Amino acid sequence: MAGAVGSRSCKKIRGAQIRELLEAKANVLFDCDGVIWDGEKAIPGAPEVVSLLKQQGKRVFFVTNNCTRPRELYMQKFSRLGFTGVEQEEIFSSAYCSAVYLKEFASLQGRVYVIGGDGVQKELKEAGVPFVEGEVDVPGQTISDCPLESDVKAVLVGYDEKLNFLKLAKACCYLRDAECLFVSTDPDPWHPVRGGRITPGSGSLTAAVETASNRKAIVVGKPSKFMFECIASQFDVDPAQSVMVGDRLETDIVFGSNCGLSTMLTLTGVSTFEEAQAYMERDTPETQSMVPDYVVDSITDILLALKE
Ligand SMILES: [Mg+2]
């Protein structure tokens, strides 16, 4: 039942309530797409909110399942969209965290076979994680006559606009070795694109490999707790002192709930207030983790609250 003891509240807040919440927190974690920007446009007020929070001595982190660009290009995007003072080490993308996972946590002895674009490949390179590079499509080649590398010890699957059938088949062949790790950048099923269209996300590509290989991927991105562990391994962050601001209930809000953070849904992206309320009314342990503590219409509300 809505409002049951211990359940999350899904409360729309503004003004002083936002200010009080933020005053009680030392760390603010922002998702990016649908929260601080929409494509190539900053959500109004987002750059000022980031600057103001930092001026108040808060630590700000950007936690995104979008693995299409390396952090270096995120830095360019932040500055292009008018954000100032953002540091590369504050950006935790699923591509960067996947590289950290493979390097620091999996102690990989061998190369990675990658389904994924530039973002993933550049972060692996930066972290010094060896992977199979420079594959060229040979016309007419099939899975029965293409070469496979003997030192592949992990398959990493992320968003890949150049995915083809042969790559998919190779990934599945490598995973027949039970010792070969299977890692997915993030579980996002799809992403909105212009004109009301959508594109399949990393989660959809991972699902294809999971089905064909009969294996389950280790998921790095939200809602897995790993991205918070990744932040906590580099910064002193107390979950009770932290709030996660996101636009997607199934990833951002569950991530915040899983990691013991306060959670705030902003309505400028994927999920709606009605969806959040519907999860609250169902009131099962699974749906409760998708119910945000707080809801705002937009990050603009945070700016107004901070300036009041
Ligand atoms: Mg988002």
UniProtKB/TrEMBL annotation:
Arranged from A to Z, the UniProt key words for this protein are: Hydrolase, Magnesium, Metal-binding
Please list the cofactors this protein needs.
Answer: Mg(2+)
- The record lists substrate as bound by 191, 222
Source organism superkingdom: Eukaryota
Q: Where does Mg(2+) bind?
A: 31, 33, 247
* InterPro entries according to UniProt: HAD-like_sf, HAD-SF_hydro_IIA, HAD_sf, PGP_euk
Catalytic site residues?
31, 33
Cofactor: how bound: Divalent metal ions. Mg(2+) is the most effective.
Gene Ontology terms, cellular component aspect?
A: cytosol
Which Pfam families does the record match to this protein? Hydrolase_6, Hydrolase_like
Molecular function per GO: metal ion binding; phosphatase activity
Which family does the similarity line name? Answer: Belongs to the HAD-like hydrolase superfamily.
Protein name, per record: Pyridoxal (pyridoxine, vitamin B6) phosphatase
Q: Which organism is it from?
A: Erpetoichthys calabaricus
Q: What is the lineage of its organism?
A: Eukaryota, Metazoa, Chordata, Craniata, Vertebrata
Which gene name belongs to this protein? PDXP
